[in-house]
Amino acid sequence: MLLFRSEEHVNRWCDKWKQPQGAIISLEQQWRLAQSWYVDRLEIEWRRKTIEEIHLLWQELGFTSPFWDVDG
């Protein structure tokens, strides 16, 4: 995950490094993602999230573009 000042900055970076543009999310969305993703990471019973759990999390966060497709 990379942080940029603006969408224009994203576009310049992608052009310079010949990379496709991925999803652009706000700092608030990034913070909500981090909180949701790592909330239980230090628990002894921690396990990886299932595909279904990831789909549900993406829906809750409003991540609906094809970029977030984890099914491959």
Kindly, what is the distance between the CA atoms of the first and last residues, rounded to a whole number of angstroms? 19 Å
Overall pLDDT level: 94
User: What portion of residues is helical?
Assistant: 40-55%
Q: Give the biggest beta sheet.
A: none
Radius of gyration: 15 Å
Written overview of the protein:
It is a single chain. The protein is mainly alpha-helical and 72 residues long. It has a domain at 25-72. It contains 3 helices and no strands. It has helices at 7-17, 27-38, 51-61. It is elongated, with a radius of gyration of 15 Å. The two termini are 19 Å apart. The mean pLDDT is 94.
Task: Please give a handful of descriptors for the protein shown.
3 helices
In short:
By secondary structure, the chain is mostly helical.
